Amino acid sequence: GAGGSGESLSPMKRLTECVRLAKQGDVAEAFDFARETENLHSADKLFSVKYIETLVKIAKLSDDELVASVLNDAIKKVNKLKVVDSYTGSGDAETAYHFMLAVGGLSREIEPRYANVAAKLKLCQGSIARNLKDNALFPRNALESLAHALISEAQGHAFEGKLDQALDAITFASDLGFSKFQKLHDDPVLAELQDQEALRKHLESLEKAYLVKVKQWSREEIDKFQPFVFEFNVDDVDGGSFANGNFDDKILVVDFWATWCQPCCEGIPEFVKLQEEMGKQGVQVLGISMDSPDDPDSSVDTVKEFLKKNEVNYPCGMGTDALAQRIPGDVKLPTTLFIDRDG
Question: From residue 286, how far is each of 263, 292, 316 by CA, in Å?
Answer without folding.
Answer: 17, 18, 6
